[in-house]
Amino acid sequence: MDSSRDVLKAYGVWHAVGLASWNIARPALFLVDSAAAIRYSFIARRQDEFPSHEEIMEAIASLKDEG
To answer: 3-state DSSP helix/strand/coil percent for the chain, to nearest 5?
Structure first.
């Protein structure tokens, strides 16, 4: 629960659409490494946009290759 929307704003996924009760987060995916660094991010422009399964798996594989 992020009632203050601090986390949403910190990750850049908060999307103000008018009334506070209607404000929503954009679909987003972050891969964070063991040092707490964001190594991959996807932030949608629309509510119906998501990364493909293949894109996610490629991002995970590239992190495994580095580590």
So the answer is: 35, 20, 45
Q: Which two tokens stand for residue 31?
A: 């891969």
Task: Express each pLDDT in 35-47 by its tens digit.
Answer: 888 899 998 888 8
Does residue 1 lie within any of the structural domains? no
Do residues 28 and 41 make contact, with C-beta atoms less than 8 angstroms apart? Answer: yes
CA 15 to chain centre: 12
d(Cα 59, Cα 44) in Å, to the nearest integer?
Answer: 16
Is 29:49 a contact under the CB 8 Å cutoff? Answer: no
The helix or strand, by DSSP H or E, that contains position 64, with its residue range, turns out to be helix 53-66
* pLDDT, tens only, 20-34: 556 677 788 889 888
CATH number of the domain that 62 lies in? 3.40.30.10
